[in-house]
Amino acid sequence: MLESPVIEIKNLDHFFGKGQLKKQVLFDINLDIMAGEVIILTGPSGSGKTTLLTLIGGLRSVSDGSLKLLGKELCNASGKQLVEARRRIGYIFQAHNLHKSLTAQQNVQMGLELHREYSVGEMRSKSAEMLEFVGLGNRSNYYPEDLSGGQKQRVAIARALVSHPKIVLADEPTAALDKKSGRDVVNLMQKLAKEQGCTILMVTHDNRILDIADRIVHMEDGQLSNANLQLVTAG
Ligand SMILES: Nc1ncnc2c1ncn2[C@@H]1O[C@H](COP(=O)(O)OP(=O)(O)OP(=O)(O)O)[C@@H](O)[C@H]1O
After folding, report:
1. Which intervals hold domain ABC transporter (predicted)?
2. Neighbour tally for 183: CB within 10 Å
3. How far is the C-alpha of 144 from the C-alpha of 98, rounded, in Å?
C-alpha cells in the first residue's frame, strides 16, 4: 500500500494586502512530501520560501488552493484547527528564539507545554533526555547567554523535537553559525529525523548543507521550478 504524503499541496496561491495593494506572492504551488523525507527549500531572497513555510506551519491562513497537513485541510481552517495543526509541528528558526530568563532545560520543556498529557515530572525527564541527546546534558542549567551560538541552536532543536513531532519546519537554522557548528546542527537534525521518522522541511541559503537533503526544491518568483522533481542522493 502506498503511503499518503504528510504534506500535500495542490494549486496553492497566496496574496498579501487588499484592494489596490493586493499582491500575489505564491503561484500554483504543487508539492507532496512523504514521511521521513528531508527537504531543502532554496531560492533567491523574496521568492516566497518563508511565506510557504509559514502557511505549511499553520502560522498564516491558507485561502486559495489546498494544503493538507497529516491529512487535515488547512485551507479556510478555523483558528482552533490551526492551533491543533501547530501542536503537531516542531519549529526551528534562525534566531532560535530561546527565552533568556529560562535555563536550557526549561526552554526545551516549553516544547512540551502545549501537550497537556504530560505531568511536570514527565516533562522534566523528557526534556533532560532530549538535551542529553543533542550533547548538552551538562549544560541543562545554563542560561542562553552562557551558551555559544551552536549550543543555543542545539537547544532550539531539542525544544522542537522533544514532543516527537511528525513534521519539523526550519527557517535558516544555520545562518548564524560558523561552518563547523552549522554542520553539527544539520547532522543532528538529519539523525533525529531518521531515528524519529519525522519529516524535515528546511529553508536555507547555505550551500554547504545541501547534501543532507533527500530532495531539493527550488523556488523562484513565487513558483516552484521543475528541478524539484529531481532526487538528490544524500551523502
Ligand atoms: N507580511 C507581508 N506583507 C506583505 N508582503 C509580504 C509580507 N511578507 C512577505 N511579503 C512579500 O512576499 C514576498 C515573499 O517573501 P518571503 O519572505 O516569503 O521570501 P523569502 O524567499 O523567504 O525571502 P528571504 O530569503 O529573503 O527570507 C516578498 O516580495 C515579500 O516582500
Report:
1. 7-234
2. 17
3. 7
Angle at 208 between CA 205 and CA 213, to 5 degrees: 80
Domain ranges of the chain: 98-155
Atom 28 of ligand 1: nearest residue by CA position: 46
Which residues are CB-contacts of 196 (< 8 A; sequence separation ≥ 6)?
161, 164
The complex's ipTM works out to 0.96
Side chain identity, residue 139: R
Q: Look at the alpha carbons of 83, 79, 169, 152 in this order and tell me if their dihedral is positive or negative.
A: negative
Ligand 1 atom with the shortest distance to the CA of 47: 21
Residue 52 CA, distance from chain mean position: 11
Assign 3-state DSSP to the chain and report helix, strand, coil percentages, each to 5: 35, 25, 35
Q: Which helix (H) or strand (E) element contains residue 219?
A: strand 215-220
Atom of ligand 1 nearest to the CA of 48: 18
Q: Give the binding-site residues of ligand 1, using a 6 Å CB cut-off.
A: 16-17, 25, 43, 45-51
Tens digit of each residue's pLDDT, the chain (235 residues): 457 899 999 999 999 998 889 999 999 999 999 998 999 999 999 999 999 999 999 989 998 999 999 999 999 999 999 988 888 898 887 666 789 999 999 999 988 887 778 888 999 999 999 898 888 999 999 999 999 888 888 899 889 888 888 899 999 888 777 788 788 888 888 887 888 888 999 999 888 888 999 999 999 999 998 554 444 444 3
Specify the ligand 1 atom closest to the Cα of 205: 25
- Distance between Cα 25 and ligand 1 center (Å): 8
